[in-house]
Fold these 4 entries.
Entry 1:
Amino acid sequence: MSDESGPENSHETADRDGGADEHVSIWMLPERPARGPRPAYSRGQITQAAVRIADAEGLDAASMRRIAAEIGTGAMSLYRYVPSRDDLIELMIDHVLGELDLPERPSGDWRADLTLLAERNRAMRLRHPWFSEADRAHPSFGPNALRTVEFSAGALDVGIPIDDILVLVGLVNGYVDNSVRQELGWRDEQRRSGMSREKWMFRTSPYVRRLVESGEHPMFTRIVKDARQPHMGFDAAFRYGLERVLDCIEAALPDVPD
């Protein structure tokens, strides 16, 4: 990823006691200054250009310089709107989270709500392969991210501790992320070498047969002989796995009377 941190003092301000710098979130900064000329661009325009570039060429390609060329301005002028590279990625993440198109509030059927969230999250990540690379360990507090939190956590607000809600929502999100990474990995493999998953399985079958015949790997042998999931299409495999994840969540929830 390119190192474009922007002006040194644009994003951190010293606290009033003279201690360590205090981080100023992009979400705390106004879209436009209270005074001065009307801005020629908006954060939305810059973010949309960055997403278009990342979709087509990867996250690293979405540099300030490249975005500036896309919208027809100088790179340094963009820092008036987006102070740093980290801020840009934060805006990009929140922008595509807006594509999830979730209802205003959960329906009361937690399983249906989490299924909807998982399916739309998967579809969004497949449309934007860079998302998994850009997604951070720390949470985002953009408006679309917060809307997603309210919906997902609210779906499981059925009388369990908030820490349990966080773990269970994380279980669904982690499953989606892992599933999408695998699917994108096979996409990249086929694009790079022409090796589809089916071709790879055929190519490795002589060695797999030798492993099975050795009798030394009983669980691997069961996978080879009995598992259906490796032979499913990506959509079917995703739905199968998601149902198992939701079954685990159901087992952790208190009984809710009909």
Entry 2:
Amino acid sequence: MQVFDDTVCTLGEGPMWHPERGELFWFDILGKRMFAKGAQRREWVFDEHVSACGWVDRDTLLMASASGLWRFDIPTGDRELVTALEAGNPVTRSNDGRADPQGGFWIGTMGLNAEPYAGAIYRFYRGELRQFFDRITISNAICFAPDGTRAYFADTFSQQIQTVGLDAHGWPAGEVEVFVDLRADDLNPDGAVVDADGAVWSAQWGASRIACYGPDGSFLRAIEVPTSQASCPAFGGHDATTLFVTTAAVGVQDTNAGKTFYGPAGVTGQREHQVIL
């Protein structure tokens, strides 16, 4: 993989390719910054942790922060609160999040110091924020099957990626099942994304790679990342065949740590889904 942007993020996360703008958005959670890069590069600084976003229209994002979900105006940088997110809990912040095929937005929370079981996973859909999974230590790997019938998520602490069926409106339905169990290999699932064929691409914290698993959970292959702490992948580019990867510099001493990378995926990803507000 090659360097897409050489800004060193303490904790790079939340890459999202905006299909109408042709830009990648991503975050430095601990640095309280959001970046965008396409024809030009921009950055915004906030007074709280920000971690993930989905696109609403060409000029609008739904952005997750430690205190809420916000309507963010890209041209002006103005933001307006859509709904609070654990705003009264000083222990937690937002972490991994992604839009689903039905137009909802899933967002996970976690403790500021990864306090055990302090986090949860929510879905925001047409004005309603609903919590589904609690007692999460490090929420991650939120992504969706192309037909919208299945969601994936992880508690990195558990070393497992889990899956749950979705109903026609995108709400979880049925029992949660283990999709991939990584404990035997001592691998730590971080952010993830699903390609157009339904394979799950998982960043594995500390392992310098993005691993690809088939819809049945079987390991298919891995793409090496030139620093150990790969945090989240995203498909982008005009034909969704480029894989972008954020990384983290916290606790690592190497020249590539915290930079954002890209390279050919060898497959076609899903176009990032549009959030319906």
Entry 3:
Amino acid sequence: MNNDETPHSQQPEQPERPEQPDVGASGVPDAPVPPPAAEEVSGRQRLLAGLWPPRVSRAQLIVAVLLFGLGLGLAIQVRSTSDDSALRGARQEDLVRILDEVDDRTQRLEDEKQRLDAQRTELENSSDQAEEARKQTLEKERQLGILAGTVAAQGPGITLTISDPSGAVAADKLLDTVQELRAAGAEAIEVNGVRVVANTYFSGEGGDIQVDGKKIEAPYEFKVIGKPQDLEPALNIPGGVVQTLEKEQATAVVERSEKIVVDALRPAERPDYARSSAP
């Protein structure tokens, strides 16, 4: 071999071709496989995540407080309206009478409270509490005797004279008169010589009236011990005793006095069954 012979030329190296994606039978490359998806969250978990912990804004809190206050006010208004409904249909005269009676009873209760407070103070401060207790017991006995009609009484009050020329005043009208006087604070009442007590009853028709079974005739004279400033207005209020009797063609005259004597007595009755529970 001659040195002049040209050596076999080497084939130039072919550049590397990028790898081609695998193709399917149709010649379309396969789609890339997506990464694995995160674990799906259920609907209940999403609901719980939205409700708890609660997220309350300041505006929502203010609205809630205002709504609570409005509801409370409406409830109080409804209850107040229902309590007053019993007096809505009352007449003006009835309302005036009810108001006067409430004021009078309040004043009497206040006077009774002050009297009891004074008695308690006397018992606490008395050097001889036994003697003081005995005196108060006797005073209480006299007071109960006046209420029971077993002892005479005197004091300021009024005299009510009812004239009934036509005999139209029935027993119920006289009973209403006694009830009005008691409501006004009467402490002792006498009608035509008959002492009025807790169990007194009136019976009969006009012109033939009986009190506790004893017949009385017109004019009917009520002697009443109590505060004249309370007793007289109670009889003369609009729609009261005086106006009611005038509708029956009767007349009623009220006179105040600083001294009324109620001396008609009732016998003390011994109870058949009731006994004192005091030791």
Entry 4:
Amino acid sequence: MENKHSLKFNRPKDSRLFESDKEIRFDLPCETEFDNLSYIGVVLHETWHVPNHHHEHFELCYVECGEGWFTIDGSFYKVSQGDLFITKPGESHQGAAAGDLPFRLYYLGFNLELMRSLEAEYYKIGFNRVEKDEKGLVKSIFDNILEELRMKIPLNDTMVQGLFIQLLVSIVRIYNASSQVGNQESKKLTSNMIDILNYLHADFRADLTIEDLANKFHISRSHLAREFKQHLGVPIGEYIRSLCLDKAKHLLRETGESVSSIAERLHFTSIHTFSIFFKRHCGKSPLEFRKQNSSR
């Protein structure tokens, strides 16, 4: 695919914590006997989006709540609450939240160079990359690892490594248990579709039309509408409206920007047009929504 870039991880000498109201991330390792765990984090962001990239390690994502999508080398996967998603070293992938539900994603980067038997098991994972954590085991282990990293008590690095190995084995068992079922069907995305998704999430405009997109990417309107519905399961117009509403909710809840400023940022023709749109799809005015949901 085009515009690939590598996110090669430069391993720090000591663990480092990055924290905000929307994300917490530990870059590792701690001072451990073997440094397989590179980073672990949680992101809570309704408009979360990661553009196409690849890296030199395995990565696990777990959706605690909400809905979204990922691609691997153009193959498209939907994810929702309780889903696991694995990428392998060198695979180009991207992802985003979708819909208007709260979104919370756990993620973890790791290499298995010193754990060859497990490495072989992970490379055996096939094309069906999305699996359910039916018993909630993966989330539980994730939470325990994060708690140990926060506590900074004696032997917590040893405990983290033990939990990490438990997590790795549990994931392999989940994938192996359903490997013959193949319950997650993927679809191959065209390069145009990938570019369109990146474009929509990177620079969203409420005044964007299907005709604008079709012209920009040199395809017919009918072909674009058909392909988008086939791959994402929703009409492209509905997807654009959903993006607009998600972005508006995020700005109203998480920033102090005025309603008129938000309307202008989202490229509505006027604050009146924005207010009508918001109330039609949310059931309340932007100011009512802000009063009831503001985190500031």
